[in-house]
């Protein structure tokens, strides 16, 4: 794969000598960090380019593409060849999503799925390796590839390539409790964390205070320690208490893992926190702020802080609304329809929180839906790492109902016309019951 990236980078330089470039990237953390890496790399080459961030590659995106520019897709487009083959221009793709059809002749693509036994690598990782081939000076952008990796939750099983990227990035790795940000006071982490949902604690400052008091973890001079400052005894108490809240048979050791720390704006930060802030900005319609924040623009940081605060408040409010939402629950799946009670921009975050909440058994499918103007945004997750390929499930439904689908085996999403709501839910239920029974 590395040899392919080297060759594709050469082709890209050659084919963009006298042409403008249109870069299109996804709006999640991985897509934004990919865009930030590429923006900096192309600027350093004095390339004439424009950048667009999209939620999803719908047909209208392709109908508005310029025919006189070289198109570069980042972190998407591997399953959009039916549209791309009709473009009368050169197309480059750096993506890690599954390829579902034959690659058109106008496409030059780098995708791990094209290489036997290639390690899984995020869009930002591919963008970084590509940028590094364009100019070795771009090694200073390696930290963005690590943020993209964490944003796409690929940090648990890193291989040789990402180990090399981490070395380039100067990101430090420390074992700790898998809640974030590890560099913030433990009370705030417990209140706003989305990795481990604790009923009566998550989203409640009073609940957090009572929880920590029961554990004899007290503030010092009015301030609680950060997660990475807790001593062994305090960590043990916290792990035991969290484990008791879990409905499965997990052990405290399951909650310990690698924490990635990076010097960001001259301060040691938890990469997961940076990822969450990027995601909040982009999903709030501030992708420009997100990219500038990635590149450590001070004005962007001030704006990102405000956006993230509002974003966290929206999540807490959404979690409070969960008991009131329409639900269809069976043994192997739950469909939650928020309608307009939760914003479509955070319905995916809510689905992720629930899939990590320990309230559901491994393998259970969680499908969360919310209205998005004339469409319905659907976010699907699988609890744990044992279960049906949820992207395949959604693809099967969309094939019958119509719409756009994307994502991975354990985290996927789609857009469906609102007037097909009943048909979508009925087809989804039938498909889930057939597919999950096979397990």
Structural write-up:
It is a single chain. By secondary structure, this protein is α/β, with parallel strands linked by helices. The radius of gyration is 22 Å and the shape is globular. The protein has a 6-stranded mixed β-sheet, sandwiched between helices. α1 crosses α5. The mean pLDDT is 90. Helix content is 42%, strand content 18%.
Topology:
Layout: H1 2-15, E1 21-26, H2 29-44, E2 49-54, H3 59-63, E3 70-74, H4 81-84, E4 91-94, E5 107-110, H5 123-134, H6 142-151, H7 160-169, E6 172-177, H8 186-192, H9 205-214, H10 232-244, E7 256-264, E8 267-270, H11 271-283, H12 287-294, H13 298-321, E9 326-329, E10 333-337, H14 347-355, E11 365-372, E12 375-382, H15 390-401, E13 404-407, E14 411-417, H16 421-437
Parallel strand pairs: 1-2, 1-3, 3-4, 4-5, 10-11
Antiparallel strand pairs: 6-7, 7-8, 9-10, 11-12, 12-14, 13-14
Features:
Diaminopimelate Epimerase, Chain A, domain 1, 5-stranded parallel sheet, 16 helices, 14 strands, globular
Radius of gyration: 22 Å
Shape: globular
- N/C terminus separation: 33 Å
Parts with pLDDT < 50 across at least 5 consecutive residues:
none
Number of strands: 14
The CATH architecture of the largest domain can be given as: Alpha-Beta Complex
Number of helices: 16
CATH class type of the largest domain: Alpha Beta
Mean pLDDT: 90
In N-to-C order, the SSE pattern is: HEHEHEHEEHHHEHHHEEHHHEEHEEHEEH
> How many structurally independent domains?
3
Task: Please give the order of strands in the largest beta sheet.
Answer: 9-10-11-12-14-13
Helix and strand content put the structural class at: alpha/beta
CATH topology of the largest domain: inorganic pyrophosphatase (n-terminal core)
- Report strand %: 15-25%
> In this structure, how is the largest beta sheet organized?
6 strands, mixed
Percentage of residues assigned to helices:
40-55%
